[in-house]
């Protein structure tokens, strides 16, 4: 092996940055818009989001890895998205969030553990009882609590969801001081 002994070479290879990378499938927003334009991905009229299951079944992504799907802006301008879409993915870049929200859509980043992701993607494999969603691990919790990332655990996003259930708007709330 030359200068390095096998033990030293093994320890150097185990410290590569790829070992610490998150295992996610990526998709650009312009590809989602292309599939919507082709008619392969449908936007629901009742406001339900496009989830990772719809992205997989329509062929936007060929497979969903263990970490879920990450939505990227692709460096394109906000003109890449024409339709107001609601998207629910594992992660999203700042440019993708800005592009989708500039046309009236919304992005929600949702954590799925391994079993919950399988149940989400293939609900037919769980005919009797669907497993509950686990909380994110401590190292991922700040990401899903942050409204800037549109994490599903952020107080602002939870308030918005509750107001939608009650058919209210944020302007309708009266705050007393």
Quick take:
By secondary structure, the chain is an alpha/beta fold. The strands form two sheets. It has a three-stranded parallel beta sheet. A two-stranded parallel ribbon has the order 3-5. The chain is globular, with a radius of gyration of 20 Å.
Seen as an oligomer or otherwise, the chain set is: single chain
User: How many discrete domains?
Assistant: 1
How many helices? The count is 7
Radius of gyration: 20 Å
Which structural class fits the helix and strand makeup?
A: alpha/beta
Residue ranges: pLDDT <50 for 5 or more in a row?
A: none
Main β-sheet, in a few words? 3 strands, parallel
On the 0 to 100 scale, the average pLDDT is 85
Q: CATH topology, which one?
A: Ribosomal Protein L15, Chain: K, domain 2
Overall strand count: 5
Give the overall shape: globular
Q: Return the string of H and E elements.
A: HEHHEEEHEHHH
N- and C-termini, Cα separation: 73 Å
State the helicity in percent bands. Answer: 25-40%
Strand order of the largest sheet: 1-2-4
Amount of beta strand:
5-15%
Which CATH-level-2 architecture? Answer: Ribosomal Protein L15, Chain: K, domain 2
CATH class: Alpha Beta
Descriptive report:
With 177 residues, the chain is of the alpha/beta class. It has one domain: Ribosomal Protein L15, Chain: K, domain 2. Strands 1-2-4 form a three-stranded parallel beta sheet. The protein has a two-stranded parallel ribbon with strand order 3-5. The model has no long low-confidence stretch (mean pLDDT 85).
Write a concise keyword list for the protein shown above.
177 residues, 3-stranded parallel sheet, globular, 5 strands
């Amino acid at each position: 092996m030359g200068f390095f002994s096998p033990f030293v070479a093994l320890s150097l290879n185990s410290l590569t940055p790829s070992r610490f990378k998150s295992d996610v499938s990526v998709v650009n927003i312009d590809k989602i818009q292309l599939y919507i334009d082709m008619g392969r991905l449908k936007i629901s009229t009742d406001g339900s989001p496009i989830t990772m299951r719809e992205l997989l079944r329509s062929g936007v992504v060929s497979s969903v890895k263990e970490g879920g799907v990450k939505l990227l802006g692709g460096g394109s301008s906000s003109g890449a998205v024409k339709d107001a879409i609601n998207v629910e993915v594992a992660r999203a870049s700042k440019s993708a969030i800005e592009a989708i929200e500039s046309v009236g859509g919304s992005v929600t980043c949702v954590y799925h553990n391994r079993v919950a992701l399988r149940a989400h993607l293939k609900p037919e494999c769980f005919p009797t009882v669907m497993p509950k969603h686990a909380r994110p691990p401590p190292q991922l919790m700040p990401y899903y609590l942050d409204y800037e990332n549109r994490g599903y655990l952020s107080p602002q996003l939870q308030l918005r969801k509750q107001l939608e259930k009650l058919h209210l708007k944020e302007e309708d709330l009266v705050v007393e001081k």
